[in-house]
Design brief:
By secondary structure, the protein is α/β, with parallel strands linked by helices. It contains 15 helices and 13 strands. The chain has three domains: 278 residues, 3-Layer(aba) Sandwich (Aminopeptidase), CATH 3.40.630; 159 residues, Glucose Oxidase, domain 1; 132 residues. The chain has a seven-stranded mixed beta sheet with strand order 2-8-4-5-6-7-3, with helices on both faces. Strands 1-9-11-10-12-13 form a six-stranded mixed beta sheet, with helices on both faces. Helix 4 links the parallel strand 5 and strand 6. Helix 2 runs antiparallel to helix 6, helix 13 packs parallel to helix 15 and helix 14 runs antiparallel to helix 15.
């Protein structure tokens, strides 16, 4: 199947040849095979999927390694909510990974939402900066919340308030979405993190069932329910496949990591069999053009995404951390491409600031479709942020918002925005589009080739520094007289000037490509970490939402008027220490920029 290239004249000869080689035969064959496999990690179907991938790589003659790491996973099985004093049985109930395996009974207390409720018009008084701030002691009660896909922070808050169990009401009329409850990235807690794993049953119910429970809970008589969950949480060996395609006549340790998860909820066609098909097609096509590359590409299929909080990619980040830190110039996540009727790149794609021009140019040249920059999500298999690696394309294309609204879709985090597919039993073959998938694979191919073949890496760290400067300026404005971020702002201004001079020297040939690339990669290590993470380079930030320059984000609390005099002083000392560290790191980055 062909897809019209929007601006073919903008493609290089190699890009045109690669684009022409990409078709739907191999990708669709994978989708048809995976449509029969429920690829939950640790299952026989997951192993069958890995073996399909390796069999096809063997057929292509592409070299690969299969690893079988032990991952800490939580497989949800059955769940139920039944009335004790009223006739009620949940029509479609799911528990979530890392909930407690237990049965409890309690009176239902409706606790509102950590954000706007979708059961009625949003109440501004119900939208709180701290989730459930007005909810009192829940001991002996089952908390009922309209939080939809219950956030990690909200779950922890309700447990801390003594809830015996949590029932989350989903927006879906027929079937709640599958999910996970641990904030621990990669699933495996450190010794002092074990208490972060929930110790109560958590279930998701449909919108109609939730509305009925809420009506009873808010009545004079109330309602008592039994909540039961059944899960297996423990260690599982899971196949992890990494192909490597290297140029034969270029001596380089540099590589790009292209990756996506192959495990799924149910058969998971658009989350993420389409991504697996894209990875396989790119392995097939790129392998025959490798001698035209300047650096290698690794293509990885991860297990443990859904039931281990990105356990497979986290294992790889740990096991190959030094190699990645030294040699990986970019990581590219392929998740949920090719959803039927996805025609834009506005809602779900994201990239680090320095990759903006690279990504948007590729989208424009291949598709001509709208695109929009978004701050990188702390989600997906972005397990390489703490390492400081440039990243782009998390969730590929999306169905336009107007179309989603017309179809009655609520907001979800994947499947092109198709809420009748995401984490549901209905994410089946009909949710994928042949033309959409080929188009998305071609966008990935062109953006990858522009990194793989470049003499000098095409990343704009001047733009990166400017974005960080803008974020710090907002924090400076919020802090007002309480804290002064001018040392950071001044150092960032100096960095931006030095980067501009460096880029000019590179373009004029005054800096050798090897020196330029090492400098660009070192800048990524500093600026990506500064922009995205709080923890150390070989650690993992928790799986919770974040703001730009998260180490400075607490400064916004000065502007809320909620801090007392002592708390303002505590925060001032905290920010002073952070600023010392940040300025020192930027100064180290400045020292790595060659002078001409």
């Amino acid at each position: 199947m062909s897809h019209r290239i929007a601006n073919e004249s903008a493609l290089s000869d190699l890009e045109r040849r690669v684009v022409e080689d990409i078709d739907d035969e191999e990708p669709w064959a994978l989708l048809e095979r995976f449509a029969d496999l429920e690829r939950i990690s640790g299952s026989d179907d997951e192993v069958a999927a890995a073996e399909y991938i390796t069999d096809r790589l063997d057929a292509f003659g592409v070299e690969y390694e299969r690893y079988d790491p032990e991952l800490y996973l939580s497989q949800p099985h059955d769940a139920s909510v039944s009335g004790v004093d009223r006739d009620f049985e949940g029509s479609f109930v799911k528990t979530v990974s890392f909930a407690a395996d237990a049965t409890v009974t309690g009176s239902v207390e409706y606790v509102g939402s950590a954000g706007p409720s979708f059961l009625d018009d949003p109440d501004p008084d119900e939208i709180q900066s701290e989730p459930y701030a007005d909810v009192g002691d829940l001991t002996g009660n089952v908390a009922l919340t309209a939080a939809g896909s219950l956030s990690i922070r909200a779950t922890r808050t309700l447990e801390d308030k003594g809830a015996e169990a949590v029932i989350a009401i989903h927006q879906h009329e027929r079937e709640p979405h599958n999910g996970i409850a641990t904030p621990i990235w990669g699933g495996i807690p450190e010794l002092d993190e074990q208490d972060l794993i929930p110790d109560i049953p958590i279930v998701h119910v449909t919108k109609p069932d939730g509305a009925q429970l809420r009506e009873w809970a808010e009545s004079d008589d109330g309602v008592t329910v039994e909540v039961s969950t059944n899960l297996t949480t423990g260690w599982f060996e899971c196949p992890l496949v990494v192909a490597e395609i290297a140029p034969s006549d270029v001596d380089t340790d540099e590589f790009v990591l292209l990756h996506g998860h192959y495990d799924s909820w149910h058969v998971g066609i658009t989350d993420n069999a389409t991504g697996d098909a894209g990875l396989l097609e790119l392995a097939r096509v790129l392998d025959s053009h490798a001698d035209e590359f300047q650096r290698s590409i690794r293509i990885a299929w991860w297990p443990g995404h859904s039931t281990g909080r990105y356990a497979g990619s986290t294992w790889y980040a740990d096991a190959f951390g030094l190699d990645l830190a030294r040699n990986c110039v970019a990581h590219v996540n392929m998740d949920s491409p090719g959803a039927k009727d996805a025609t834009e790149y506005t809602d779900m794609s994201c990239w680090t600031p320095e990759a903006h021009g690279l990504v948007t140019d590729a989208i424009d040249d291949v598709t001509g479709a709208p695109s929009q920059e978004r701050f990188p999500f702390r989600a997906g298999d972005y397990s390489f942020d703490n390492l400081g690696i440039t990243g782009f394309f998390m969730l590929s294309s999306n169905i336009p918002e107007a179309v989603r609204k017309e179809r009655g879709y609520h907001t979800v985090g994947g499947c092109g925005g198709n809420s009748d597919a995401w984490h549901l039993t209905t994410d089946s073959l009909d949710k994928a589009g042949r033309e959409e998938l080929v188009r998305d694979i071609r966008v990935y191919a062109v953006s990858l080739l522009r990194v793989l073949t470049a003499d000098v890496l095409p990343f704009d760290h001047g733009r990166n520094a400017a974005k960080i400067h803008s974020a710090v300026q907002r924090y400076d404005d919020a802090a007002g007289e309480h804290f002064d971020f001018s040392p950071t702002l001044e150092t960032l201004t100096r960095l931006t000037t030095e980067i501009e001079a460096f880029e000019t020297a590179v373009s004029s040939g005054q800096v050798a490509p090897t020196v330029a690339n090492r400098t660009i990669t070192e800048l990524s290590r500093v600026l990506t970490r500064l922009n995205l993470v709080q923890e150390g380079q070989f650690e993992q930030d928790p799986a919770v939402s974040r703001q730009p320059v998260p180490r400075y984000a607490p400064a916004e609390q000065f502007d809320t008027g909620t801090l007392d005099a002592d708390e303002r002083r505590f925060l001032t000392r905290q920010l002073q220490r952070e600023q010392n560290s940040v300025v020192y790191e930027i100064e180290q980055a400045l020292e790595k920029i060659p002078t001409v």
